[in-house]
Design brief:
2 helices, two-stranded parallel sheet, two-stranded parallel ribbon
Amino acid sequence: MNTNQLQYENINTKNLINEIYRINPNVKFNTFGNVVSEKEAMMLYRAVLKNCNNKNANLVYIPVISM
């Protein structure tokens, strides 16, 4: 995904997404809307850090709403 095409909730979100792609450029993710929220970016960041030992693996993040 091209990060230039994303819309961010704030500058913290943009910085998190850039760091995620620095850690693992193979990461793919979906968002709930047109804008990446800071909470979504933080959850994705934690998932990427948890799996950072295996850089060859593709991490696909799909957000889930629990009720």
